Amino acid sequence: MTLFPAQAVSRVRILVAGDVMLDRYWFGEVERISPEAPVPVVRVARREDRLGGAANVARNIVALGAQASLLGLVGNDEAGDKVRALVLEAGIHPCLVTDPVAPTTLKMRVLGRQQQLLRVDFEEGPGAQGLAELESRARELVAQHDILVLSDYAKGALAQVDALIRMAREAGVPILVDPKGHLYQRYRGATMITPNRAEMQEAVGRWQTEQELEERAQKLRVDLGLDALLVTRSEQGMTLFTKDGRQHTDAHAHEVFDVSGAGDTVLATLAVTRAAGLDWFDAVRWANRAGGVVVGKLGTSVVTAEELS
């Protein structure tokens, strides 16, 4: 495998647009069951906030040594203020739009003895004013970057994803998409999409053989006008489909501790290595290695260039 291109990576500028969220963790000890209901009582000892969704993609890009700008929506609330502070702390260039009507998407996880006991989500769809401002900011920013990364968590920030793809194509900027749902026609014209196994099955149906997967993946790639399609397959590794055919890399053998945010790390590594000049399959192999590292960490985490090397 080609060496990690650290020197070239430092010059890479990536715009990440999509669903920004705050991941909030409450860590504690569980020593008894509640007398009010058959649930554990967690005595909270530590609290931690981390960037999630598109913000975690940007955080991973910076951790790998590249430059990242983050375009997304936050609310006029405490969680939005925390996102802004964490973005600056991470060294990400903030291009955040404050939505006047919708709160910041927040995922709160309660953990006892390093095990997740409960997750509570706070989210609402964005307002028209916030979406219009996001699209306007994108028009200013896209041409200033080497790659556009679209991180779709189906929270609404990418409701106008077709317009963002069109802007990037007109500017000659490649587009990498982490898709959501099964309506993949909305991603038509992107350079690459990276569905996981379940998302791919939702889009093209279940396959029985590798040949059947290849036929359906290549048809989808051609229908959407993609250069490449990458299916991430957990313990089965990753399979890349391009006009040159199918290339597969096996998963790195690591103990899986937490898969939260693993797709963000894969997407970030793909964008960084591709923008640094690596071919598709070398970029995929570095992304595969990064994904293998991050699933050994607790919660939404990052992988550094030093860890990969």
From TrEMBL:
The keyword Kinase applies. SUPFAM superfamilies: Ribokinase-like. It comes from the Bacteria. Coiled coil: none annotated. Gene3D superfamilies: 3.40.1190.20. InterPro entries: Carboh/pur_kinase_PfkB_CS, PfkB_dom, RfaE_dom_I, Ribokinase-like. The keyword Transferase applies. One of its GO terms (cellular component) is cytosol. Residues 14-302 form the Carbohydrate kinase PfkB domain. One of its GO terms (molecular function) is heptose 7-phosphate kinase activity. Keywords: Kinase, Transferase. Pfam families: PfkB (PF00294). PANTHER family: BIFUNCTIONAL PROTEIN HLDE (PTHR46969). This is RfaE bifunctional protein, domain I. The lineage of its organism: Bacteria, Pseudomonadati, Pseudomonadota, Betaproteobacteria, Burkholderiales.
